[in-house]
Amino acid sequence: MGNYLLILVCLRHSRRHLGRTLLLIFGIAMGVAGVVAIDIAKTSVEKSFDLSTQALVSRSTHQITGTGLEIPQQVFTDIRTDLGIHRSAPVISRHVKVSQLGDRILTLMGVDPFSETHFRNLHISPGEQVLSGIMTGSNGVFISRSHARQYNLDIGSPLDIFLGSRRTPVTIAGFLDSENSAAGRMLEGLVVTDISLAQEILDMGDTITRIDLILDADDPAEKIRDLVGNGLFLVETDQQNLAVRGLSQSFETSLTAFSMLALFMGIFLIYNTVSFSVTRRHRLHGILRAIGATRSNIFFTVMAEVMVYAVIGSVFGVLLGILLGNGAVQAVVATVSEMYFTLTVSQTHISGFTIAKGLLAGILAAFVSGFFPALSAAGTRPVSLMHRTVSEKKFNRVVPGLFICGLLILAAASLLMRTASTHAGSDFTGLFMIFFGAALMTPLLIRFLVRILLAAGMGSLGMMVKMALRNITRSLRQTSVLMASLMVVTSVYIGIEVMTGSFRLSIIQWVDDHIGGDIHMESADPLARSLDQDLVNRIRHLPRVTSLSAYNIHPVFSRASGKVHLFSYQSDQSVKRWSWTAAPKEELDALLEEGWIFVSEIFARQHNVMPRQGAAAVLETGKGPVTFQVAGIFRDFFMGGGRVVVSPETMARFWGHGDITALQLFLASGTPAEPVMDTIRQMLDPEDMIEIRSGNAIKKSILAVFDNTFIITSALQVLTAIVALTGILNAVTALLLERTREIGILRACGTLTGQVRQLLLHECFFYGLISGILAIPLGTALSWVLIHIINQRAFGWTYDMVLTPGVFFQAIALSSAAALAAGIFPSLAAGRTHIPTALHME
Amino acid sequence: MSDIDKSFDDSGSRRVIFRRASARFPSGKISVIVGKSGVGKSSLLNLISGIDLPDKGTIQVGDHCISFMNDTARTLFRRRHIGFIYQFFNLIPVLTVLENVTLIAELDKVPQKTCRRRAESLLEQAGLYDRRHDFPETLSGGEQQRVAIVRALVNDPDLVLADEPTGNLDQETGAKIMEMITGLARKKNKTLVMVTHSPDAAAWADQIFSVGSATLAPMDSHPHG
Q1: Span A152-165, pLDDT tens digits
Q2: Residue B41 lies in a domain
Q3: Stretch A530-535: mean pLDDT, rounded?
Q4: Quick check: B107 and A463 CB within 8 A?
Q5: ipTM of this predicted structure
Q6: What's the rounded Cα separation, in Å, for the pair B59 and B47?
């Protein structure tokens, strides 16, 4: 029998059920869209990172930098004159904001025009004038031409450069031009000026950020190391970039895991739809088999049809993914900039590879999910015509076996996720296995729960309730797929809700412990960060101020992560939650005084500090690299990466800082913060740029930043929900259509339209209720995995899992409401059933 | 029923089932409808029960003219005054025998005790009392049809409609079922309208109608003469 004709039969059958066919295509498209959007976001971060750094590092092979992320300009002179290395260039680079350029964060780059030729191709206009001619002796800066055009700026336009609250007015001296659009994007993140103007803007005196070098085998690297000595470091540019780039990769991989979740939902959806479609065509397949179609004919026909829809859905998915990708890029770039490294250029990058990956994901998912229903269709025997219950009975026999398989898969997933290395792929495999295992356990659990509900007296609520519950187990083969999908999506809801809820609680606790206090003060001038000691003393003795934390914070260079933040406390009210300590907690302060250090979890992760006796970390100090004993690892959510706490003596000895940069004030109970803040403001000089904020305001702003980091997760949660709901709608429609004959009988016997609708809605409600109940353990397990494995690997944070009954009730309510909503249209349609036709349906 | 017109849309053309068809099925009598396949026998029962509506004409059951009722009223009328027996039994698979029988009464808010007592009494008469907690799929065809008959009678309807009640049963079981239906109908003085192909079934009739060529006409002779 010609397969072509068979496929035609199936396609025509699908055309008759166009709504469900479209839902299937939509589901595939949504799953693929999630994968494509996240892949676009990831490759765009990669591209944006390259664009943000290429202009800065360009052709340099090495860099010399200092422990405090700045070095004396004299070092540059020594390199040139003493060592005769001419391919060297002094560089100043620091992130600033320019109000006339949309308040975007840009890199202010100070360069020496005479040293630049070896490093960067900074083409400037107007005319052929050289960079030096325009910049030297003026307060002129260069910005990219496209950027200027975007904001209607021209040569001579004034710009205000902000470093914290410090404002420096400059003017546009010319434009940076590029040979192609990619390079043009690269320049958009830059404000270039002469090194002396940069020093003036940044109040850096005779220091620079670093020296770029192009070294080859003949260059005396050892001599350079001798020259740079204490407090200065020679690093390989590529390796340093690689280290910084690596910081966010776990986060990006966790996004992939979430996008795969959407695709996984898509697989359920396709399985659902194809499975229902095969059931509905049982008779058709039986006839085809009876007149000579082979098993392989039927298998091929079903698969071919699925693949046709897979291709259509995948193509739509890619297009939708490209649209969604733009939004995802913004969210992911914002999170990466907040959490890991500043991206001054945001570029949406869509590669052919991403598109191919999306298409392949959709087609593979459809193949996998269509395979078993196709196999089942191929197994149709001509003699089994009109015996739908045959397959139900067969399925009922394998239900206990499925449960045991599911248990084994769950055990394997747990083993994989606990023992696997930090390889990110294992996270997704583990997640996939958890969902798959739980889905296999669903049929037996559904049967069990239905019995419990009936035994608990649900049946006494009326015949309709009883019928609704029994209908679930009667069509278990189909209802279990639908309810497994609903269970998975509800568990994703629970997982993400518990994760974000627990995270917020931990953040609030951390803010209270570390940044707590009723009033927070720090310098708003990044160039003059020290608070006057006299002022500190006067504030300490203000009435109603009961205690204060006075600390200093300094960013220093780190080979592993670009930079780390050093903290030392003059007085400290903070409470740390320790992940690990080398000694009893009461002895830790003494260890700190002896020169040991405390490190944050993020630092420990980035610098491979293991929580065990003898733990140590190398820090780049003003005296060169020094190994410090680690006294404890503390839980930390500090924005900007790893944090190290040292004693004030250690800070002064190795980094030369003895100042105070921030204060937290603790007021007597019941004292409002505002009047005290006003008193402090009156104590300040008008020129002092000191930011005074209430503890509540700080808490709110920190929570807002952290909430932003979950925007993309929440967006994926919504996407997953849409895919799942599409599947549920599809499945409910198909399931209720199966009841047509039964509805006809009921109507013929005198059941009112409203009562029929009531029956179907009851059934849908129970789909949701049971799925919601089943989702509670799965969602709890998922939240554990998200909190203790995926998030920890992505961000390096640990926090306690907090389970609240409210989330579970919400989840059950949502699941029931979703199933009910999916049942509205089918039940309305069922109410209009034409009884004579329904009575003659098989 | 008088002056009934009924036609269906059949692949673009109208297929006339009845044209100005009239008939009277006397109360307490057994009427049998015969005719070839596809001439409209089942459609006639659908019209009489209010499941379907005629294009023209009126159908009156007792004092009630069901042609002018809305869907809800017709459904409630059917529930309270008509019992239906089908060829394929049409039991609800997820309900037990007893629940199948009491379903309609329960939907009609008849007190559970009352409808249960009535159902159990009828099931006992049908020899199915011991199987009242079993599900339909565990019963034989004959037993399922007996349950369907009990379900049709449980609300004490004025009119019982049977659509090929023995069509799916062997001859011996069919004869027993016919005996049961007609026996119960006569005993309880019910009006029974039955569609059948079976000549044996026709033998139980008080009057026979023939359906064909868009007409419904009484046949001249029948076994009870």
Answers
A1: 888 888 899 888 77
A2: yes
A3: 86
A4: yes
A5: 0.75
A6: 8
**A778 contacts: CB under 8 Å, gap ≥ 6:** A434, A435, A438, A487, A488, A491, A494
Which residues of A touch chain B, with CB atoms under 8 Å apart? Answer: 389, 462-463, 466-467, 470-471, 474, 741-742, 745-753, 755, 835-836, 839
Cis omega (within 30 of 0) for bond into A72: no
| pLDDT given at position A808 | 94
Name the helix (H) or strand (E) containing A140: strand A140-144
Give the C-alpha separation, A366 to A358, whole Å. 12
Q: Inspect the interface and report whether the beta carbons of B95 and A835 lie closer than 8 Å.
A: no
CA atoms lying within 13 Å on the CB side of residue A132? 6
Contact across the interface for A749 and B80, Cβ inside 8 Å: no
Q: Closest-CA residue in chain B for A461? A: B106
User: Is B178 within a domain?
Assistant: yes
Q: How far is CA B170 from the centre of its chain?
A: 20
Give the pLDDT score at A386: 44
Which member of A742, A748, A751 has the closest CB to residue B107?
Answer: A751
Give residue for tokens 């059917």.
Answer: B78
- Check: CB of residue A314 under 8 Å from CB of residue A30: no
Write out the residue range of the structural domain in which residue B87 sits. Answer: 2-93+140-149+157-218
Q: Domain count of chain B? A: 1
SS3 label, residue A120: coil
* For the ranges A65-74, A478-487, A593-602, the one whose mean pLDDT is highest: A593-602
Residue A26 binned pLDDT confidence (cut-offs 50, 70, 90): confident
CA angle A47, A33, A274 (to 5 degrees): 150
pLDDT tens, A587-622?
Answer: 999 999 999 999 998 888 888 888 888 899 988 888
Mean pLDDT of chain A: 81
* Residue among A458, A465, A485, A432 nearest A771 (CA): A485
Give the distance, in angstroms, between the CA of residue A420 and the centroid of all CA atoms in the same chain. Answer: 21
Has residue B17 been placed in a domain? yes
Q: What is the mean pLDDT of residues A626-631?
A: 93
Distance CA A92, CA A96 (A): 12
Task: Flag whether residue B92 sits within 8 Å of chain A, measured between CB atoms.
Answer: yes
Cα–Cα distance list, A580 to A573, A618, A619, A788 (Å)? 20, 19, 20, 16
- Token pair 């017709």: residue: B74
Calpha distance A157→A699 (Å, rounded): 39
DSSP A783-831: HHHIIIIIHHHHH---------HHHHHHHHHHHHHHHHHHHHHHHHHHH
- pLDDT beyond 80 at A140: yes
Is A535 within 8 Å of A683 (Cβ atoms)?
yes
Tokens encoding A289 = 């088999």
Under 8 Å between Cβ of A38 and A258: yes
Q: Residue B8: which CATH number?
A: 3.40.50.300
Q: How deeply is A670 buried, as exposed, middle or buried, from its count of CB atoms within 10 A (0-12, 13-18, 19+)?
A: exposed
Do the chains contact at A749 and B104, CB–CB below 8 Å?
Answer: yes
Q: Kindly report the backbone phi and psi dihedral angles of residue B215, in degrees, each rounded to the nearest multiple of 5, phi listed first.
A: -125, 160
Q: What mean pLDDT is reported for chain B?
A: 84
A759's tokens? 């029956």
Amino acid, single-letter form, for residue A395: F
Which pLDDT does position A452 carry in this prediction? 92
Segments in A93-144 forming alpha helices (H): 131-135
Share above pLDDT 70 across residues of chain A, in percent, rounded to a whole number: 83
Answer whether B158 touches A (CB < 8 Å): no
Q: B19 near B5, Cβ under 8 Å?
A: yes
Is B122 within a domain? Answer: no
CA A245, A250, A251, A256 torsion-angle sign: positive
CA-wise closest residue to A445 among A804, A777, A735: A777
